[in-house]
Amino acid sequence: MPLLEVDNLHTSFFTDTGELKAVRGVNLSLDKGKTLGIVGESGCGKSVTALSIMRLVPYPGKIVQGEIIYDSKKLLALTNEEMRHIRGNEISMIFQEPMTSLNPVITIGEQIREAIELHQKVKKSDAEKKAIDMLQMVGIPSPEKRKKEYPHQLSGGMRQRVMIAMALSCTPNILIADEPTTALDVTIQAQILELIKDLQQKIGMAVMLITHDLGIVAETTDNVAVMYAGKIVEYTDTKSIFKESLHPYTIGLIESLPSMEKTDGKRKPLKAIKGMVPGLINLSSGCTYKERCPLGDEECMTKEPELRAIKKNHLAACYKI
Predict the structure, then answer these.
(1) DSSP characters over 273-289
(2) 290 Cβ contact partners less than 8 Å away, ≥ 6 residues apart
(3) Are 206 and 35 in contact (CB under 8 A)?
(4) Rg of the Cα trace of the chain?
(5) How buried is 212 (Cβ within 10 angstroms: 0-12 exposed, 13-18 middle, 19+ buried)?
(6) pTM here?
(7) What is the tens place of the pLDDT at every residue in 45-78?
(8) Is the pLDDT assigned to residue 310 strictly greater than 90?
(9) How far is 48 from 45, CA to CA, in rounded Å?
(10) Ramachandran bin of 266, using left for φ above 0, alpha for ψ from -120 to 50, beta for the remaining angles
(11) With the C-alpha atoms ordered 22, 299, 289, 25, is the resulting torsion angle positive or negative?
């Protein structure tokens, strides 16, 4: 049985101009010790899916339909107090921007210690010792000294490590990492991803990795959900996504990656996906990818395709495959 199951999740933002349907019927599952990658363009619903699981959707957003089941518990049916016990303790999240996620007027050591005290119900001295241990575990040098520093005194990579230390301080069963390497240089990116992988193996947690970087997906995930306009359009294991992707959008994403191959001494030109992502208020009928799809026809214009099994353990939402 999966550790986490999301069933027919719909999350909307009720704005003055109408209902913005950010997440539309998402289904996914995450097994213990495995890594699920959620990939797609900005605005496709990746982060809102994660915030829905954490029950942290900001106003005017609201989960309007669906079920989120973690370890046999229906998260949407829990009281706020019950959810607070799970959030940060059993399911942790690394948010996109560490500078805005950390409190600028509290030292990093104190912020980690507070998280441990809140969830683990331990003495202040024990929580402080564990905070230092966590800073050391995530590779921050001189943790005794660093714990007294404020977020602005640290580099982007160091702040990201502090966020990881805080997220893992209570040894969660699930870590949701929302673009954990955004705005970091390539060497720091590799270190952060390697760190998450090592800690995952040490404590056996499951990881949900949200990214738009297919290179990161290829290196770190077991399964992949490709999102477009609030829906999952392809869902399978990572190897199959790169070896035999089925949905035209996934194929377009992979073809847009830079290639080292040369033809007549020249590198192949980058392929771009034409057009723009549709607005999620007052969506037109039919497939949301129809205007950009090379396979689109009349059938695609009238009815939106559902995610279905095309091959064993390989799902896609398209009429043309």
Answers:
(1) --S-PPPSBSPPSS-TT
(2) 296, 300, 301
(3) yes
(4) 21
(5) middle
(6) 0.91
(7) 999 999 999 999 999 999 999 999 999 999 999 9
(8) yes
(9) 5
(10) beta
(11) positive
